[in-house]
Design brief:
Structural class: alpha+beta
CATH topology: Muramoyl-pentapeptide Carboxypeptidase, domain 2
Number of helices: 9
Largest sheet: 4 strands, antiparallel
Shape: globular
Bound molecules: zinc ion
Strand content: 5-15%
Order of helices and strands: HHHEHHEHEEHHH
Helix content: 40-55%
Strand order of the largest sheet: 1-2-4-3
Number of domains: 1
Distance between the termini: 14 Å
């Protein structure tokens, strides 16, 4: 991972060496704004239907080419998502569940089985993707864990990714470790670690609970200190430890 990053950087750095010495600032030193980390900034994304930050996009294309050779078509179902898109998803679910008679905090607990609180999605970063095998014809929802298991349509995809994705910098975030809390197992959600590790490190350095308390989307008025503390601990930080 470190070495790949170094190679990519040194080739672009060599090109710009005489023009712009600032390219030597290491990626790790880049400071992301809180707007970027919360999906509220207009960031530059690359690749039609891919929509990732440059370095993540380039690594994804390399991985996609390798997967093609193994008969697998890495198809992006979802990648970058901004704050307002996540807000719309959250509010739609919140209204649906509370209209069915659920208490606000129960509705929020149900939403966060699979969906994030706006401002805290890793999809805000331009580093994370939900992917499947586009060659497989699948009925109904594609992002269902059983479809990635033995006998399921994405079994080959899963086996290939298990063996190769980390070579390209992509790590599963929400693993099937039974001791893990927070979001349920998502065999489709991968993160480009060379960028997302420093981003998470910077994000957790902010006062996330205080930031969320200032939001005013539907449901946010019910966030308590205790709820936010466990959400941050379980849903944001209890992930694949290689990404911490
Ligand atoms: Zn995802």
């Amino acid at each position: 991972m470190q070495r790949r990053t170094f190679i990519q950087k040194s080739s672009s750095a060599a090109l710009a060496i005489s023009l712009l010495p600032t390219v030597f600032i290491k990626q790790d030193d880049y400071e992301y704004s809180i707007l970027e980390l919360m999906g509220k900034a207009d960031i530059e994304l690359f690749g039609k239907g891919i929509n990732l930050r440059k370095e993540a996009h380039d690594a994804f294309l390399e991985m996609k080419m390798a997967a093609y050779n193994a008969g697998i078509d890495l198809k992006v179902v979802s990648s970058y998502r901004d704050f307002s898109r996540q807000e719309a998803i959250f509010e739609r679910k919140y209204i649906t569940y509370t209209d069915q008679g659920m208490a606000p905090l129960d509705a929020i607990d149900k939403i966060i089985e699979y969906s994030t609180i706006p401002g805290t999605s890793r999809h805000h970063w331009g580093t994370d993707i939900d992917i499947v095998d586009g060659y497989r014809k699948v009925e109904g929802d594609v992002l269902v864990p059983s479809k990635f298991e033995a006998g399921g349509p994405y079994e080959d995809f899963k086996l290939w990714m298990d063996e190769h994705s980390e070579t390209y910098g992509f790590y599963l975030v929400y693993t099937n470790d039974p001791k893990r809390r927070g979001f349920k197992y998502e065999p489709w959600h991968y993160s480009y670690a060379p960028l997302s590790i420093p981003m998470l490190e910077q994000f957790r350095g902010k006062n996330i609970a205080a930031l969320l308390t200032k939001e005013n989307f539907y449901g946010a008025e019910h966030f308590t200190k205790g709820f936010l503390r466990s959400y941050i601990q379980n849903n944001i930080l209890d992930i694949n430890e290689d990404l911490l």
